[in-house]
Design goal:
By secondary structure, the protein is mainly beta. It has one domain (about 5-140). Helices cover about 5% and strands about 45% of the residues. The protein has one helix spanning about 90-95; strands spanning about 5, 15-25, 25-30, 45, 60-65, 75-80, 80-85, 100-120, 125-140. The strands form two sheets. Strands 1, 2, 3, 4, 7, 8 and 9 form a seven-stranded antiparallel beta sheet that branches. Strand 8 (about 100-120) and strand 9 (about 125-140) form a beta hairpin.
Length: about 150
């Protein structure tokens, strides 16, 4: 999951949004670049504790015109962090691309960048989804939200 464009305007420092997790039994895990460590609910968690080992020492994701592997010309870079969807429907689209995925409402803080990310949609044509990249998230337990975490 990488941004395709960066918005020049700084994001709000904190807010709420939607995050896709891989669900294994009752535990939630990062859907991309995860280390395989369960992510707790109802607690602020920093992204670097859950980042895949290969990326632990890196501070930035570099995006190239031929992908992430360093091929082609570097277009931009941005800090590692949790990618938070601003809209639930976009998170639900992303969740369709994997097995055992769950969309959850989250709080975020220490946002560092915002931009757009292309989703290869199952239901709709190509979508450019609004994303905030933040250093910390808080997974809101389902029982604390009206309608079981279903509000948009």
């Amino acid at each position: 999951m990488c941004l395709d464009t960066i918005t020049p305007r700084k994001p709000k420092e904190s807010g709420t949004g939607w995050k896709v997790f891989e669900k294994r039994k009752t535990k939630l895990f990062s859907d991309v670049f995860g280390e395989g460590v369960p992510i707790p609910e109802n607690k602020w968690v920093h992204e670097d504790k859950y980042r895949e080992q290969y990326f632990k020492h890196k501070k930035f994701i570099c995006v190239y015109d031929e992908g992430l592997a360093g091929e082609g010309v570097k277009i931009f870079e941005y800090p590692f962090g949790w990618h938070v969807f601003k809209h639930k429907k976009d998170a639900e689209e992303w969740a369709l691309m994997g097995d055992n995925m769950e969309v959850r409402k989250i709080k975020y803080r220490r946002a560092c960048v915002q931009g757009k990310q292309e989703l290869a949609s199952v239901k709709r044509d190509k979508i450019m989804s609004s994303i905030v990249v933040a250093k910390e998230i808080f997974i809101i337990p389902k029982k604390e939200t009206k309608g079981g975490n279903d509000e948009s």
